[in-house]
Hints:
Layout: E1 9-13, E2 16-20, H1 24-34, H2 39-48, H3 53-66, H4 84-100
Antiparallel strand pairs: 1-2
Helix pairs in contact: 1-3, 3-4
Amino acid sequence: MANPFAGEVAVTIGDTVIDAKLTLGALAELESTLQTGSLVDLVARFEGGVFSSRDVMAVIVAGLRGGGWRGQAADLLAVDFPGGPLGAAKLAATLLARAFAVPE
């Protein structure tokens, strides 16, 4: 079960649920993958609603990797995320928010 205080978000892929999170290594991979500005720029795009589907997939893949998943982004091309593309965008935004939130 995902622990939001540890930055985890439950991600369903088929019949499997993975507790994804953006670890430091996953964030470094995310920066390398996107090659566009900083993580602050990425968060600002999500906050402003001007993110791309590439941004969404990159965040989800990084979060899954942070949770121990060893797949590739191409493995997710046929995955139907709960809630469709909007659900995937919310999932990515939640991963980012939890990575940078201070537990209360």
